[in-house]
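Review session, final week

We close the course with one last complete record, chosen because it touches almost every idea we covered. It is MATE family efflux transporter, a protein from Natronorubrum halalkaliphilum with 487 residues. Go through it on your own first, then we will talk.
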Amino acid sequence: MSSGEQPDEGSLTEGALVGPMFKLAWPLVVIQLLQVAYNVGDTFWLGALSPDAVGAVSLAFPLLFLVIAVGAGFTTAGAILIAQHTGAESGKGGLIAGQTISFISIVAVALGIIGYFATEPMLDILPADSDTEAAILPLAADYLQIFFLGVPFVFGFFVFAALMRGYGNTRAPMRVMAISVVINLVIDPLLIFGVGPLPRLEIAGAAVATVLSRGIATVIGFYLLYYTNVGPNIEFGHLRPRLEYVTEITRLGVPTAIEQSMTALALVAMTAMVVTFPPAVVAAYGLGNRLISLAFLPAMGMGQATDSIVGQNLGAGRADRAAKATWIGAGVIGGIMFVAGALAFLFPEPFVSVFVTAEAEGRAETIDYGVTYLQFAAFAFVFMGVMQVIQGAFRGAGNTKTALAFAVLGLWIVRVPVTYYLIFVAGWGTTGIWTGVVVGDVVGALTAVAWFTRGTWKESLVDDGEKGDSESKTEATDSSETESVAE
């Protein structure tokens, strides 16, 4: 398959819009669900090990996210470029994919080395009460260092999934992800508890299981890219770094990497405030975040689908179609997140208690804090969902700086300062944590939607000279656009 052909999900730039849009989006939602299955599996088995192990993973997550954010920014840049060149039928999708793979491989090795040696210094900067520091920080260090050694394997699957998403094929990465998750869920308890001849690695076993399963996914994904026709047509010559494309990937990727890093740093800042509370609060905060991320999956999937849809349509010169897709996605996700928020508010305890074992010390206190957090967060679910779709549209259009600006607004200008004020100045205690999260999400979403309506994002990254025959088809399809969107 040449890089200019449309994948089997259906054309995103011509004919019916809603059908191909949801065919692209639903595997991404499944991928996000499978992504959380990694974390849920770890949390479940580590919860059976000890509450301190759960707290350690919760503490480690923002620091992991900080390092992974850099690679995520560049994979997103590759997806954006492939989407727009696929829509424009420029024939350069394979070359851009190869450039993305080689560049991010170098970044992944560097970040893995840096993360391994920076683990203890990063943990040391977190202010923690004496009980938390003694019980949780050493466990978090064990988990982090093993994970950082496997960062190249983790990034490998991210690259594969992002490139396939930009191309418009989301089913292949979904299937690969499913295989990886099954492997992780099988070997997780074996390595954590030491079944049979396997050693009892405890929290380190969870990290080893994740790295191994990610590595297998990376091998399968790269095989599909190089030796099959399911995605961009990559040749080995495309892997040699070329300044023109590395510069473009960097230009788009740096703002997204900064956005993801700023998000991670905001989570670190929030965690730094949370760990001044007793371990039960730390555990509840981590469990609450995981439950929120689970409810958040449809929004993340639709947001990722939106960047591909917007990218391909802008590449094909279909800016109005890109805008319609964004509003459709935002409306659907708003409705789904409303239902999820209602369930979380009305029935929070069953969701929280499933991750805290009956024998766990301080179980009742952890559940109480977790229930309160989930009920507060439920009020922001709709805003979080719509924000993801709008941010996806900005990224798909290549407006990665705009997406960065709104991420900084919601997190650093609103969430972190409000939380600090409510906890340490107003004396709201744990209520200040939950309130700060909600206020940041609401303000960020409202301002992003207001900016999107201005329409200043509607511009293609692909030069007119690079476009294939997609623009010649645009006039023929314009007249039937209204009918096709309704199909």
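Two points worth writing down before the exam:
Residues 1-9, 470-487 have pLDDT under 50 and may be disordered.
The CA atoms of residues 204 and 487 lie 51 Å apart.
Good luck, everyone.
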